[in-house]
From TrEMBL:
Pfam family, one: Aldo_ket_red
EC number: 1.1.1.-
Domain NADP-dependent oxidoreductase: 22-330
Principal EC category: oxidoreductase
Keyword Oxidoreductase belongs to the record: yes
GO molecular function, one term: oxidoreductase activity
Keywords: Oxidoreductase
Oxidoreductase is among the record's keywords: yes
Protein name stated in the entry: Aldo/keto reductase
Organism: Streptomyces argenteolus
Length: 332
């Protein structure tokens, strides 16, 4: 019989590294960073002391997996995470990403580099910023890297595993064919992809099942829309990517106001998600666990309170199959 503990266990492939069913996303705690034309790529201002306290609170609550990227806050997210984990690395599992070029001084993202030489340089820089000598999961951040280049990077990652610099590697991509190409590598342990109760990702979840990967689930709360604090009419602050949403960010409109279409869909399923006494965010996380035993949602956070609420989703576990069916019926 499967116990609650089994259901909350997730392992990064051959590395044997145990991540747990819930991680935390460290994009927002990077603070402000921009494109060369000044458009926001961060989530507005953050309080680093609160971010450090939130990471440490997560560890106390048994959440040990943290997903960051070198480019979040142009290096700042890795530095803050490293500060929070100093002296506590044995309690944590850390994933970072590489592939984007950025200037730490101006906090600007200014290109990409998918060469193996840059992968090594980026890995060394991430190790320095985090303050550690090994990264558990190293992820390619460029989702549309051509297959021939990706095959070379996969072999470079195998080399980093052999050198003991990383435990395992993954690709952050929403393309199952690309993910399958990385999955050919012996130490490829996961794929990071989008999925949430508003927008399912059956092909990606199917691929993880087939290839024995973990699905590290980004934007599990639809960037806050599924956390209940983004009520219709509420505007995002300047400096928050939701305030001037890029083309791919369809959950929000100019000014960071939730899109009426998506807000209506959230309302349609709110009652099912919040049954059993869950908050909306806890219900959205429970839906992902109900969808796949390989799903590891990594909700973003900025405060201790958000971490506490999201970690408490673990006490409720997955939504039941009949609740998933009911949601399917409501979202047709
Ligand atoms: N290409 C990639 O590889 C990629 C792309 C996107 C994301 N990611 C990763 O996935 C992680 C998660 O995705 P995401 O940050 O895009 O979005 P998300 O997890 O869907 O939403 C996170 C946001 O929701 C709000 N929130 C979280 N918990 C809450 C709670 N309990 N109550 C109220 N509000 C709450 C917070 O924003 P406010 O407080 O500001 O509302 C938080 O920053 C990222 O941090 C990053 O690590 C990776």
């Amino acid at each position: 019989m499967r116990t609650e503990t089994d259901r909350q266990t997730r392992v990064l492939g051959r590395s044997g590294i145990e991540v747990g069913a819930l991680g935390l996303g460290c994009w927002a705690i990077g603070g402000e960073w921009v494109t060369p034309d000044g458009s926001p790529l961060g989530w507005g201002k953050v309080d680093d002391d609160e971010s450090v306290a939130a990471v440490r609170r997560a560890l106390e609550l048994g959440v040990r997996f943290f997903d960051t990227a070198d480019v979040y806050g142009a290096g700042h997210s890795e530095r803050v995470l490293g500060k929070a984990l100093a002296g506590r690395w044995d309690e944590a599992v850390v994933a970072t990403k590489w592939g984007n070029l950025f200037d730490e001084r101006t906090r600007t993202m200014d290109g990409r580099d998918t060469s193996p030489a840059y992968a090594r340089a980026a890995l060394q820089a991430s190790l320095r910023r985090l303050g550690t000598d090994r990264i558990d999961l190293f992820q390619l951040h460029i989702g549309d890297t051509p297959s021939d280049e990706a095959a070379v990077l996969r072999e470079a990652c195998e080399g980093f595993v052999a050198e003991g610099l990383i435990g395992a590697y993954a690709w952050s991509t929403d393309d199952p064919e690309r993910a399958a190409l990385f999955a050919e590598g012996e130490h490829c342990a996961a794929v990071q992809h989008a999925c949430n109760v508003l927008e399912d990702a059956p092909r990606m979840l199917g691929l993880s099942e087939e290839r024995g990967l973990l699905s590290i689930i980004r934007s599990p709360l639809a960037m806050g829309l599924l956390a209940g604090r983004r009520e219709p009419g509420r505007r995002a602050e300047a400096g928050d990517i939701r305030s001037t949403p890029p083309e791919w960010l369809h959950w929000f409109e100019e000014g960071g106001v939730p899109s009426a279409h998506w807000a209506r869909r959230v309302e349609a399923i709110r009652e099912v998600l919040t049954a059993d006494g869950r908050t909306l965010a806890q219900g959205a996380i429970g839906w992902l666990w109900g969808r796949s035993a390989r799903a590891v949602p990594i909700p973003g956070f900025r405060t201790v309170a958000q971490v506490e609420e999201n970690a408490a989703a673990l006490t409720y576990g997955p939504l039941r199959p009949e609740q998933l069916e009911e949601i399917d019926g409501l979202l047709v």
